[in-house]
# Entry
Amino acid sequence: MGMKTKTKDQLIRELDEASRTIRGYEEAERYRRRDERDGSAPERKLRGGLYIVQDGKFRHINHYVLKISGYSREELIGRDPMNFVHPDDRRMVMENTKKHLRGDHPVSCVFRFVAKDGAIRWIDEIVRKTKYEGKTAILGNVAEVTERVASREKQEELETIEASILAAIPHAVIGLRDRRITFTNNGVKTVFGWDEDELIGKSIRILYRTDTDYEKMAGLYSKLKRRRTAGDEVSCRRKDGTDIECRVNASRIGDSLEDKQIVITYEDVTEQERAKEELEYSRQQLRDLSVHLQSLRERESARIARELHDELGQLLTALNMDLVMLERKIPPGQIDLVKRAESSIKLVGMTMNGLKRICMDLRPGMLDHLGLPAAIRWQTEEFQKRSGIQSRLSIKPEEFSVSSDLSTTLFRIFQETLTNIMRHSEATEVVVHLKKTREKVELVVSDNGKGISPEDRHKINSFGLIGMRERVYYCGGTVSISGRPGRGTTVKVDIPFQKSGDRK
Ligand SMILES: Nc1ncnc2c1ncn2[C@@H]1O[C@H](COP(=O)(O)OP(=O)(O)OP(=O)(O)O)[C@@H](O)[C@H]1O
Ligand SMILES: [Mg+2]
# Structure
């Protein structure tokens, strides 16, 4: 029988038949069946591409190939298929084709194909020998896999990014599945002294000092049931046996904790913790020292006040009595002498008053004898007299008593506040409130001056406010100093009784 030209549909069916054994063609078969059911032309619905090459030229091309290439059938038939393969992949495709034609089991080849619009498409191809119009030909079966390749590239890119993120994190990063280590970064070397690979597959227990610390870590797991991330501080052990403090952050992988996968970062904070403790310790020492110095100063002032009062006071009293006696003995007619004596007596009186004031400043005797309200009243009057600044005072209740330490603290703070007002505020008016309740003593001093600025509150060589804060801190109270430009300054001190244990 001579050669008979086949119809296109016949050809497609045959090709279809022939390539059924080719991997990936089952799907094409499924489509074909559905096409037959729907009664539409089988070729157009074939998902896989089919072509026949004979003597190095396209002889037949199905619709799928036209679609992915963008060319018309006329543009392809009679052309060398290699023209459409990406130049970089031609060699590989050629060799693969040869191999396929020799071998029994076709293996697919993935290469790049240049479409009519210049777009690059990834193609997965299998070829095998066939007969076409009685002559040897190549039957090619192709499928476009551009998306698959792109997503694999994306995946690889993501993996590279992940790897560099892991490497860039200065802490140890550890991935866990069911408490076994599944991945790490090179930070585990710095933090724990382990090599990355040494830890894979081990239980996370190896990083902890004791079972208790390990269990503490288990607490993180339960937190992760409700939250995405959780953190804690935990004691860990390095490979060399030394203990370190780590700040730990855990986060679950995925939306739930069902497959028990989490990733944990460990930051070695041993040094930070030590530095923090040392800082806190030396701060406490400074506070103790300042309290000690203040009480020394109070005692020293009290001693000087007492001595001035006792020694100079008595001498002045004696001098006064002598002068009075002398004055009486002046013979009549000596007006000059009498005047002299009178002014001397007056001078002695003034000296005695001055001395009293100095003694009061050094150690307000009133604090001990008459209590805080009286001392505050006296100090306010003195202040008004000396500075000329209008001073209003309210004390509630009018009289009360608190411990000697607390009186001293509040009185010294009051003195410093008034001194500051006189020196810095340019105020014309001061309002003072002193109030004792069941819970606390409160002292508020406001002026109407220029207002303290935030920078003023932290001047390097100013110790008034620092001393105030330290005294209040020592009593367990709080102090707030606020100012508004041109609207004055307010100093508010609160000292609760419970905290200082100072209640009378
Ligand atoms: N009532 C006030 N009005 C305006 N500025 C004030 C007032 N009180 C304090 N200041 C500002 O706050 C700064 C700090 O006050 P602080 O009492 O600590 O130090 P000082 O009075 O300057 O020096 P000292 O150590 O002698 O007390 C002052 O220098 C001043 O600029
Ligand atoms: Mg001051």
